[in-house]
Amino acid sequence: MKQFLGLLGVACAIYGVYQFETCSSGCKNHENSYSNSNSISNENRQDRQTVSSPQNPSHTEAYTISTNFVKDNIVSPTTADFPFEPINVKNINNKYIVCSYLDAQNEYGAKIRQEYICLLDYNGGGWSRQSNWTLLALTIGDDIAYISKDKSQEEIATDINNLRNSGH
Q1: What is the rounded CA–CA span in Å between residue 85 and residue 19?
Q2: Of 138, 12, 7, 164, whose CA–CA distance to 65 is shortest?
Q3: Dihedral sign, CA of 24, 61, 77, 38?
Q4: Nearest to 65 by CA among 105, 11, 121
Q5: Of 11-20, 56-65, 121-130, which range is least confident?
Q6: What is the pLDDT of residue 88?
Q7: DSSP H or E stretch at residue 13
Q8: In terms of DSSP H, where are the helices of 34-152?
């Protein structure tokens, strides 16, 4: 599992998705402030709308869906604040890798910043329905929060390599 976590991080770093360095206290290139200028609350996120083609959701739409999957996998989803835009998103053939961060309360009630990497597969239909997406892998901080049971780590690694080589 640690090897797979490293694979996701390395994939992001290699093709420029991860634009910050990870350290034990969070992102080096993002201040640990929780101001409204750097993030938007869950309530405000629902007001944003973007335009995309029916075949390919935009990067913003994939990012929005990734935040839903992240909230499904954290201790206190109602406290989660995400940046207005992701750090980076790549896609090819309706597979998306989203790298960003969130500020949320941990199990002790302290608000902390954690980076996340989310690998998604868009299955068609309305982009805003989470059921039209398949979560393939999700890391939050140093933990693997989810790995799809429908795909092997090798298949997910192939998807990552395809995304890395896509140039999108």
Answers
A1: 13
A2: 138
A3: positive
A4: 121
A5: 11-20
A6: 93
A7: helix 2-14
A8: 42-45, 59-71
Q: What is the DSSP letter of 18?
A: -
Q: How far is CA 11 from CA 33, 79, 96, 107, 128, in A?
A: 28, 29, 13, 30, 27
Q: Are 113 and 30 in contact (CB under 8 A)?
A: yes
Q: Which of 84, 87, 102 is CA-nearest to residue 39? A: 84
On whether the CB atoms of residues 136 and 50 are closer than 8 A, the answer is no
Q: What is the pLDDT of residues 27-78, one digit of tens each?
A: 333 333 223 323 333 333 333 333 445 578 999 999 999 999 999 999 999 9
Tokens representing 13 are 């770093």
Nearest to 131 by CA among 69, 59, 43: 69
**Cα 97–chain centre separation:** 7
Two structure tokens written together for 68: 């839903």
Q: Which two tokens stand for residue 118?
A: 């989310």
Tokens of 63: 């990012």
β-pair partners for 162: none
- Please, what is the Cα angle at 57 between 52 and 63, to 5 degrees? 115
- Cα 49 to Cα 45, 58, 61, 133, 145, distances in angstroms: 9, 11, 9, 18, 28
